Amino acid sequence: MNIGKFALTADYFAGELEIILNFIVDCFQILKEKEKNIANDEEIIRNLLYARYLTNSSIKKQLDFTSGRFCAEPATIDKDTLKETGYLDLKVCLANHFNDDDIFFIIECKRLDGGNTLNREYVREGINRFITSQYPSHLSVNAMIGFCVTACDLDGLVTAPNGINYHINKWISPLTVQSLESYHWIDYFTSTYSSRHKISSSISETFSLYHVILDFSEVVT
Length: 221
Fold this sequence. Notes:
Blueprint: H1 10-34, H2 42-54, H3 57-62, E1 68-72, E2 75-77, E3 84-87, E4 90-94, E5 104-112, H4 116-131, E6 141-148, H5 154-159, H6 164-171, E7 176-182, E8 192-199, E9 202-215
Helix pairs in contact: 4-6
């Protein structure tokens, strides 16, 4: 049965996104056992995760994942201008809502290495794309994945003096309700966070972002 999004609660969609992100973390754990010498390239890392794991029927069956369908690099198109406004790293359509084109999650992927430059890009070229509605938030919740490509303190990526929260405060503080805070819903995995922001064109409208940091440092060259 297809239930319209307005009949469902924010908690429902947050719960669905948590299931999807849990599946991504499970796929990452399998990936780490199988892959070596991955190129230190955001697109290659994303495509590897997507093509060999997230859309692998055997793995989905093994992990009993039936919640959604992943697409990589689909375009977002402005319905008025008919121009492309951006390309999504990952788009996830919910299995129970394939007939509703507005029910999907966006997952933006960014590399992180503990350095100032990539932390800044995570905010200015990642979080900010949701704030400006370059990436829509139809369900008021989406996610970001940080590919950590250098061995470092994962919490420090968020809390260090030049970390993600520093750049949130520097660049998008007026449009941020809550910077990244630890939020754990996966028992065996703790590098997970949540934040909340305002839509720049309608500051009374807010949305949430889940953040998952995956440590690729041992398998990236």
